[in-house]
Amino acid sequence: MKNKHILVTGGSGFLGSHLCERLLELGNEVICVDNFYTGAKRNIYHLLDNPRFELVRHDITFPLYVEVDMIFNLACPASPIHYQRDPVQTIKTCVHGAINLLGLAKRINARILQASTSEVYGDPTIHPQPEEYWGNVNPIGVRSCYDEGKRCAETLFHAYWLQCNLPIKIVRIFNTYGPRMHPNDGRVVSNFILQALQNRDITIYGDGQQTRSFCYRDDLIEAMIRMMDTPDEVTGPVNIGNPGEFTILELAELVIELTGSKSKIVRRPLPSDDPKQRRPDTAKAEKLLKWQATTPLREGLTHTIAYFDKLLKEEPDFCTQ
């Protein structure tokens, strides 16, 4: 993928900023669109002087008019603490945003990729989760604004492919971590690292035996780019994640070890609709994309800890929880 004009919505966010960076490295021109609800300008400051990079402040719930070859749609708050703050706007971002971007893609005949989520599986009754599993989602729960919003976006993408022959791609992203995660997003990796670096109690919800699979950001970005480069008949959805499975307690203990922290582990009640197990079946990604996650959790956490350690020293107010 090179010499393309590419739109990245949510481009100043954790994953979006790394995607913009990588696309530029490959020789493309990139338009980064963000309304900065959860994105941060600090994530893309280093790109602003690049003549092939353009930053546009815009909310995708309103139409957007640009001329590009490809669209990566990453625009939506992705952590419960952020998407539950304004559930109506979260749904609008997922649904109205998808409608606006699909309409744009249809008008300019651009290939478009939807960054969907493992949350479409809800609290799964099948483990690990293959793409054929329809999910176990509460449509009126505290997480449903995001879960159902992303499910509806997938439906819209599929409908545009069926009805308009639009070249679409759908990836379902499982837990991803790495430098540039928002320090106050409430996600388990960023929470544990910040708590450990400050020698505060590390909070575990429930008994800590619920499991997650953690994919490092570089692996995820590579998979998204490979998915965009697949033939038109490959539409997805395709699971993107690391099939290595860890309990939340194991993660907490590893973070304490790697930081040399004096933190103690404390327990709190489990939040509503929190999945007990989450691990991707990545057979399709391995077959279609010739891809698999390769970064071990210990290595990825080391890079992420270094990032947050520096952020705490340089911008402590930004890290206040």
Helix content: 25-40%
Evaluate the radius of gyration.
19 Å
**Strand numbers in spatial order across the main sheet:** 3-2-1-4-5-6-11
Q: What is the makeup of the main sheet?
A: 7 strands, parallel
Mean pLDDT: 93
CATH domain fold name of the largest domain: Rossmann fold
The dominant shape is globular
Helix/strand class: alpha/beta
What is the quaternary state of this protein?
single chain
Low-confidence stretches: none
CATH architecture annotation name of the largest domain: 3-Layer(aba) Sandwich
- What is the name of the CATH class of the largest domain? Alpha Beta
Strand content: 15-25%
Task: Please give the number of β-strands.
Answer: 13
Keywords: Cytoplasm, Decarboxylase, Lyase, NAD
GO biological process, one term: UDP-D-xylose biosynthetic process
InterPro entries: Epimerase_deHydtase (IPR001509), NAD(P)-bd_dom_sf (IPR036291), UXS-like (IPR044516)
GO molecular function: NAD+ binding; UDP-glucuronate decarboxylase activity
